[in-house]
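Supplementary Note 3. Input sequence used for the single-chain structure prediction.
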Amino acid sequence: MTATSPVPPDDSYLRALTAETADAVRRAQPLTSDHRGAPDDLRDRVTAEVAARRDELVALSRDLHAHPETGFTEHRSAGAVATLLAAHGHPARVGVGGLDTALRVTAGTSGPHVAVLAEYDALPGVGHGCGHNIICATAVGAFLGVAPVLDRLGGRISLVGTPAEEGGGGKETLARAGVFDDVDAVLMLHPFGHDIALHPFLGRRQLEMIFTGVTAHSAAQPFMGRNALDAAVAAYQGVAALRQHLPPGDRVHGVFTDGGSRANMVPDRAALLFYVRSMRPETLRDLAERMAAVARGAAQAAGCGVELVWDEQPAYLPIRFNTTLAARWTVNQRVCGRAPLPPGVVPDFITGSTDLGNLSYRLPAIHPMIAVSEPTVALHTAEFAAAAGSPAGDRAVADGALGLALTAADYLADADLRAATHEEFAAAGGPLDVPTFFESDGTS
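The predicted structure, written as discrete structure tokens, is reproduced below.
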């Protein structure tokens, strides 16, 4: 029989969504800020410092792009960052927080403390298909732009290199090791197909369901078996039924990782791996409990045992917004000719997950998006990797570094801005005990 081909997806919904989003973008009103930020003369100095390093920052971005390294193996990338910092008189500590490829450098000795975060891990197969080369270069540029003027600004600024955002949860590991204990706020950006001041990212947990049964000869004595594959199939179908009852924006997706070895043997082991995502920490916890119930029910129906393995790497929480800081980012990108969109213009469900969310429940944080590609180009693709190494990516490095540097300077110089930033964080619930958050549901 001749092999058949898959049915191409109908792209009419995507095309309609793109058109609707473009119309919403045209009508959007950017965020405004009631705060003055840093004095104009200091902003001018920061701007000049970043501009003077533009070529070095673009070269760093291009170098990382040409030599992608996956999570926890970013030795060359961390070394390139450390070399550039040392050349400007800022020796970094590499290997902080128990992670060989993490780094930290701090300028200033006292006062309010802001950190800019650098990611530099790549994806298998597509390299910098998430544009972390740009994240890294902009963070380095922000640090180098602010550090020389701290004598006037006051306070402290740190650059923290955070490994393995792509599934490894490096920021959570560093937070548990105390790397952010003396930091008051964190800033970073992410490349995308739009300029956005605030864009939601989903919390994410990983769940492996391992079903165990009893093997038997599938023809001679099937009645003596307990089929682990049946349990896994029932669990997969149970999750499919669960999807219609999830809040908008929640996502569950999984694959079979083990389904037995031979058709004439009743499988005594089968396994599934799921990613479980939700917009809020509380709904993520509820979804985890429902997934566990599906697994236990499927195992019971098939007469099998089940083991649930949660979060081989740290769970990711969704991002908590800080509109006060995001408004300053918007102001500071408008000087670059960009107009970051407010939340709700680009559909919320066009998103993923990031370990920056874990920090955003510990202290005020921003994670704006900066455009490097056409809106229809998806992250984690070869097309987006090409954009991250293109002239558009180079422009994002320059504009993003300046935006982060000016926002950091605003935070350090403006006491009213700092107070409003932390008042907003407190009103949203204040710090969350992230390591113990999932313990009450028994899924930690």
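The chain has a mean pLDDT of 97. The two ends are 49 Å apart (CA to CA).
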